[in-house]
Automatic annotation (TrEMBL):
Pfam families: Cytidylate_kin2. This is Cytidylate kinase-like family protein. One of its GO terms (molecular function) is kinase activity. The keyword Kinase applies. Keywords: Kinase, Transferase. InterPro entries: P-loop_NTPase (IPR027417). Gene3D superfamilies: P-loop containing nucleotide triphosphate hydrolases. It comes from Telmatospirillum siberiense.
Amino acid sequence: MPDVQEAIQAIVSTINTSDGSRLVSPERPVVCISRDCGTGGDEVARLLAERLGVDVYDRIIVERISQRLDAEPETMRALDAGASHLRDLWLYSLVTGQNLNADHYKRHLINVIVSIGRSGGVILGRGAHLILANSGALRVRITGSHDICARRIAETEGIDIEAARKRVEEVNHHRGKFVWDHFQERSNDPRTFDLIINTDHISDLQKVVDMLIDAMKMIRPPVPQPV
């Protein structure tokens, strides 16, 4: 199996800057947020995007991939939810008659994320922190303990605690599986992030946004490589 990071960088390196150097150089701030279910990561992304004046990219990524693949949005949402193994793609192709190939899907995923990375925004999940590892984007992991995350889900969604625990487990499993299937990386590997924040004892998510704003100031822009 070819090295995934090498494949990603090969695609990234084909995108040229205006001065002829090869670099993913964002016009506006780019933040990649990987989050566990129940940590408040989605709300942090929304608040941060408002502060930065950029968009949040979540399900729109799936829509853009479905457009590129000429695939049914419902099918792509199913894949995005976790059915991303090669045999699942084959099964969807068999049932729908659409050519859904794992390599094609990954290539379009990378292209969409790189395109967003060029224009700026807050990107939620989908391995963006790996795809944009050398782009100058801030890569953030928002995590928390299982029990506290489950309590938050139970409160916000009005479900019992056992159902909330099950939901947290399932969502985290699917997100981790997606990253592993496509990039052969653990979604919680601390080496792939610039900053990891545990929100167990943080009630004011604006404070998390403050931390991210400060962290962005410390990220050095990538050095352009001449062609």
